[in-house]
Design a protein that fits this description.
mainly alpha; Serine Threonine Protein Phosphatase 5, Tetratricopeptide repeat; 4 domains; 19 helices; elongated
C-alpha cells in the first residue's frame, strides 16, 4: 500500500512538472510545444484540472474550438466545483456568432484539404482563405494556406502566411518546415526575428486573456535516490582523497588504506542494490502510466459516445418540433467515428430527412438577402455557403447556391473566385436552374 501511494505521488509530481513546463511554453508563445507537453501531463494524471483547462485554452487559441470545448467538458465532469471550465463553456456558448464562424471555418478547412488532396488548388485556395478569414487563429488552416501558395509557386504569399503562423506560435514545426522550404531569395532577413517576437507576445497576452490565473503546483522531488547517491559520492570521494594523499609510510597507514578500500567496495555494493531498486520502480511507473493512459482513453470514448447519443436525441426532438435547420446543424457537427452501428444507421436516417429541407431553407434565405430592396451580400454569402453544407450534389440547391456565390464574388471584385465558381456550376452541376446563365457569364465576362 505504501509503495502504491509513493508511486501515485510520483505520477502526480511528474504531471505537475509537465504542466509547469507547458505553462512556460504558453507564456512564451510556443503553443505547439505547450500542447504537446500538456498532453503528456494528462497521460500521467488525467485529473490534473489545471493542465486540462490550459490545454483547452490553447486549443481555443489555435482555432480548434471543438477540441477546446471537449477538454473543458471533461474537466467539468471530473471536478464540477471550484473549476473555471464551466465558466469557459458558458462564455463560449454565449458567443454564438463567433462559435458559428469557428464551425464554418472548420468546414471550409476540410473542403480545402479535400480539394488540395485531389489536385484542385484553385478551389482549395478559395476555401482556405475563407477558413482563415472566418477564424484568423486557426493555425492548421493557415499552415495549409501557406502550403497551397507553395504549390502555386507563390513564394512571397507563402512567406507572409508562414510569418503569420510564427507570430502566433513561435516554434510551430509545420510553419518552420515551410519557411525552410521556401527559397532564400524570397525570404527577407531584415527584421524577421523582430516581427516574430513582437507577435508572439501579443499571442501570449490574448491566450491569458481568458481569465484563468494558473498557479504552479509545488513539484515534489521525483527521485529521492539522487540525494542518497550524492551523499554516497561525497563519502566515497572523502575516502579516496585521503587514501591517496596520506602516504603509506607505515603499516598503520597501509591498514587504514585497506579499511577504506573495503568501505568503498561496500558503498559500491549498496549503490548496485539501490540502482536495482530504482529500475524496479521505473518499471512499475511505466506500467502505471500505461494503465492511466488506457483508462483515460476508455473514459474519453465513453464520454464521446454518451455525448453523441444525447445529441441524436436532441436532434430528434428538434425534428419533431419542426425545427429541421437546428437539427441538421446539430447533426453536421457530430463525431461519427465514435458511433456504434446502430447509432450510425439512425444518424444517416436523420440526415436523409433533415438535410434536404435545411438546404432549401438556407438557399431561400440567401435569395431573400440577395434580392432584397437593399441587398445584404454578406448575409447572403453566409446563407448560400451554409446551404452547400447540407445540399445533395445532384440537387438544384447545390448548383444554384454556387452560382449565387459566384455572383457575390463578382460583385466584390473577386474576379478569379467568380470565374472558378461559374466554371464549377457549368462542369459539376447540370441540374442547377442557373446552369445556362453560368455559362453565359463565363462567355461574356471573361
Amino acid at each position: 500500500m505504501k509503495d502504491t501511494r509513493q508511486l501515485n505521488n510520483k505520477v502526480i509530481a511528474i504531471s505537475n512538472s509537465l504542466y509547469n513546463k507547458g505553462l512556460d511554453y504558453a507564456n512564451s508563445g510556443q503553443l505547439t510545444d505547450a500542447i504537446s507537453v500538456l498532453k503528456k501531463s494528462l497521460r500521467f494524471n488525467k485529473k490534473n484540472i489545471m493542465a486540462r483547462n490550459l490545454l483547452g485554452l490553447l486549443y481555443m487559441e489555435t482555432g480548434m474550438v471543438g477540441e477546446g470545448y471537449r477538454e473543458f467538458a471533461i474537466s467539468d465532469q471530473i471536478q464540477p466545483l471550484d473549476n473555471k471550465a464551466k465558466e469557459y463553456m458558458q462564455k463560449i456558448n454565449k458567443k454564438t456568432r463567433e462559435l458559428e464562424k469557428a464551425k464554418d471555418s472548420v468546414v471550409c478547412y476540410n473542403k480545402g484539404l479535400d480539394f488540395l488532396i485531389h489536385g484542385n488548388d484553385d478551389m482549395a485556395l478559395i476555401q482556405l482563405k475563407r477558413s482563415v478569414d472566418l477564424n484568423p487563429k486557426f493555425i492548421n488552416a493557415t499552415n495549409l494556406l501557406a502550403l497551397c501558395h507553395i504549390y502555386r509557386k507563390q513564394e512571397a504569399k507563402a512567406q507572409a502566411v508562414v510569418k503569420k503562423v510564427l507570430g502566433m506560435d513561435i516554434n510551430n514545426p509545420t510553419a518552420l518546415r515551410y519557411r525552410n522550404g521556401i527559397s532564400s531569395a524570397s525570404v527577407p532577413d531584415k527584421g524577421k526575428n523582430d516581427v516574430v517576437v513582437r507577435k508572439s507576445k501579443e499571442s501570449s497576452k490574448s491566450l491569458l486573456g481568458y481569465g484563468e490565473a494558473f498557479n504552479r503546483p509545488q513539484v515534489k522531488k521525483l527521485n529521492i535516490m539522487t540525494f542518497i547517491f550524492i551523499g554516497m559520492g561525497f563519502l566515497i570521494g572523502f575516502v579516496v582523497f585521503y587514501s591517496i594523499v596520506v602516504p603509506p609510510m607505515a603499516s598503520r597507514h597501509n591498514n587504514y588504506l585497506s579499511e577504506r578500500n573495503a568501505q568503498i567496495e561496500e558503498y559500491q555494493e549498496r549503490q548496485e542494490v539501490l540502482e536495482a531498486e530504482i529500475a524496479t520502480l521505473s518499471g512499475d511507473l511505466e506500467s502505471a502510466n500505461q494503465q492511466v493512459e488506457t483508462q483515460s482513453q476508455e473514459l474519453q470514448e465513453r464520454e464521446a459516445l454518451s455525448a453523441v447519443t444525447l445529441s441524436l436525441n436532441d436532434a430528434t426532438d428538434l425534428m419533431l418540433d419542426g425545427d429541421y435547420e437546428a437539427a441538421a446543424r446539430l447533426l453536421f457537427n457530430m463525431d461519427r467515428e465514435v458511433m456504434t452501428p446502430e447509432l450510425t444507421a439512425r444518424f444517416y436516417q436523420m440526415i436523409g430527412r433533415s438535410y434536404p429541407v435545411t438546404a432549401n431553407i438556407l438557399y431561400e434565405r440567401g435569395l431573400s438577402y440577395f434580392y432584397a430592396w437593399s441587398p445584404n451580400l454578406a448575409e447572403a454569402e453566409v446563407a448560400f455557403s451554409h446551404s452547400l453544407n447540407f445540399a445533395h450534389r445532384d440537387s438544384h440547391e447545390a448548383g444554384d447556391a454556387t452560382f449565387y456565390l459566384a455572383e457575390i464574388a463578382w460583385a466584390n471584385d473577386d474576379i478569379e473566385g467568380a470565374r472558378m465558381l461559374y466554371t464549377r456550376v457549368v462542369e459539376e452541376f447540370p441540374n442547377a436552374h442557373n446552369h445556362w446563365l453560368a455559362g453565359n457569364r463565363l462567355d461574356t465576362r471573361f
